[in-house]
Amino acid sequence: MTSALVVPLHVQYIKSLGQNTNDLIYHMTAHLRLNAIYWGFTALSIMGQPEALDRDEMIEFVMSCWDEEQGAFGSHPDHDAHILSTLSAIQIMVMQGAADRLNVDKITKFILSLQLPNGTFKGDHSSGEFDTRFLYIAVNALSLLGQLDKLDKELTASYISQCRNFDGGFGSQIGAESHAGQIFVCVAALTILDRLDIIDKDTLAWWLSERQLPNGGLNGRPEKLEDVCYSFWVLSSLAMLQRVHWINDEKLTTFILSAQDTESGGIADRHGDMVDVFHTHFGVAGLSLLGYPGLVDLDPVYCMPAKVIENMGLRKGWKGLERKAS
Fold first, then answer.
1. Dist CA 170 CA 185 (whole Å)
2. DSSP helix/strand/coil, 298
């Protein structure tokens, strides 16, 4: 266990993920490939090492995941298009300065075709699964593409409002229990739509701050274990509500750092477990919002480097903790 973020080891860990192509786990996670590249590249960018992965190779892989028939991206070449992998593709291309290679009209048409009459979104045209996660993804993607004006904003915001619970939180659909991950997607979508007036900010911030356990970690809902990924889901919502200071930042920082593999790199869900790129990304993202020294600012709304979002004129009124001195 160490009291510092071991950036060189995390960089090396992320770089190694695409080199182990003979490992069974590499092929078993093909359905997450594009998402994993987004997680790894964003983590590297926040650690100030975006050049650690080859830019041209990354762009070409993203474009190889294009589903011409549906007009969107799958998670891997020859996989069907899905709204989640499409957002990851857009985020990667925007961060790499290659958004001009995206077929904006086709992608916009695909995303809008997934909205249901009640305002929520499904993830694709085959499963029919709908969720506030997909709603946020649609809003995020359309915003990055400069196509948010094509969305029925009132219908979309109205659906989120109907998912609000008595405790101030939001669920995956109307009537579902409050969950930190679902709260993030709803708060972020409302932030992009400029409709934070729908939220009871103090009640929701109270619920979110109650997610911190005695060991400093955050859980996703009452009576659950702490998990590094909620360092982002909870903190990002608090940042958008401008209430990050409602949790103990020192204890949370210590918890995230305790989940590092200090020999081979990577961050796990909690100390002693196996590391993965998902928790590495969200651990680094949480540390950035906590003002950890030496990291690049992360925009909690889009979960991308803040400078990228600012340069696009999309920054909203969120507030993380001040960056600490090294």
1. 9
2. strand
Which residue is associated with the tokens 């701050």? 209
| Model-wide pTM > 0.85 | yes
pLDDT digits (tens, 9 = 90+) for 55-76: 999 999 999 999 999 999 999 9
Half-sphere exposure (Cβ direction) of 81: Cα atoms closer than 13 Å:
22
70 within 8 A of 113, measured Cβ to Cβ? no
Which pair of tokens denotes residue 242?
Answer: 């401008």
Query: Dihedral (C-alpha) 145, 88, 174, 204: value to the nearest 10 degrees?
Result: -90
Sign of CA dihedral 274, 279, 284, 289: negative
What tens digit of pLDDT does each residue of 291-308 get? 999 999 999 999 999 999
User: Does residue 239 contact residue 208 with C-beta atoms inside 8 Å?
Assistant: no
Closest CA to 256 of 227, 298, 297: 227
- Cα 27 to chain centroid distance, Å, stands at 23
Q: Answer whether 140's CB lies under 8 Å from 124's CB.
A: no
What does the alpha-carbon distance between residue 139 and residue 156 come to, in Å, rounded to a whole number? Answer: 9
If DSSP states are collapsed to H, E and C, what string results for 145-183?
Answer: CCCHHHCCHHHHHHHHHHCECCCCCECCCCCCCCCHHHH
- Rg of the chain over Cα atoms, rounded to whole angstroms, equals 19
DSSP-assigned letters across all residues of 74-134? -SSTTPPP-HHHHHHHHHHHHHTT-GGGS-HHHHHHHHHTTB-TTS-EES-SSS--EEHHH
Q: Which residue type, as a one-letter code, is found at position 268?
A: A
Three-class SS state of 277: helix
Question: Would you say the C-alpha torsion 76, 80, 84, 89 has a positive or negative sign?
Answer: positive
CB 178 within 8 A of CB 207: yes
Q: Which residue has the tokens 């960018």?
A: 45
Are residues 179 and 220 in contact, defined by beta-carbon separation less than 8 angstroms? yes
> 85: Cβ–Cβ under 8 A, 6 or more apart, which residues?
34, 35, 65, 72, 73, 74, 75, 79
